[in-house]
Amino acid sequence: MPATKRKSSSKAKRAPARRKTPKKAAPRSRGIQPEDCRIDELPPEAAEVAKRVEQEGGAIVGRYYEPLGRNPLLLAALPIDSVEPTPFQRDLSDAHHKKLSEVIDRTGLFLDPVIAITAPGQGFWTPNGRHRLEALRRLGAKSIIALVVPKREIAWQILALNTEKAHNLRERSLEVIRIYKGLLEEDASRAEKDFSFYLEDPALVTLGLCYERKGNFAGGAYHSILRRLMEFSTDPIRKAIAGHEKTAEKLFELDTMVTEAVDKLKERGLVSPYLRAFVVARINPLRWIKDEPPPLAEVLKTMRDRAAKFNADKVNQQDLARSGGVPDETG
């Protein structure tokens, strides 16, 4: 039976709006003139970072204000062993860094500096140069050229804005949960919602926990439900993570029951790349709710109850043929 509509004076929750592309500015209306990019005396924060570079065996080879926001940057040669990728970016592609090392070796030139920030304790992190770093290591390089940014927060901003970031849900989720865990070490007292720019979507935090536990978890079947119902918390992230962990556990319980329903359909000889999506759609109460939806915990409980009662005998191949959605994930 369709669920009754929930009456409420408030509007139904919507998926987070996509970030708008900035309007084109008038020509030459922002930033600073070329002569103003020169730094005669480093600001205190940049001076501290320059001192850190030299203490760790590096050398400052240039310094300037970047031309848009007038933020000080340092161009430095760093000992290659002092640089590591940030611990919250996606996994290294073995094929990519080997191919990149071949290109660098063939030209004999390293022309694309990585970006670096100071790491906690000692050394440096690069939020965007993992493959270039590994390519140089493969070639036996002693040093790497880096644009050192005094603002440590830039590491999260770069990952959030990285246009080369994969759009695969699993990779996005794993990257987000790694950023989250990095934030837990860096600034655990701030509210989760303060980091919404870097984390993009609260559903990705929960799914990241799921993918960490099971690499082929069927996150695509549940993403739209989580995205509709989840919001970033006003609690500090050290507390908010517990909510994501609880939801991830409930998702695993639900997915186990959905898998049992899928197996029943297969036993009847029903074939489709959308079996899991079909079952999830059948047990999802949100398909009937147009007004404000129930809380996520209530929705997941309803889905578990319906999954337990799922009757595979009432499904035929024509029903599956009319279904669509996210193909079942295999691993």
From TrEMBL:
InterPro entries: ParB/Sulfiredoxin_sf. It comes from the Bacteria. Residues 1-27 have a biased composition (Basic residues). Signal peptide: none annotated. Residues 1-41, 310-331 are annotated as: Disordered. This is ParB family chromosome partitioning protein.
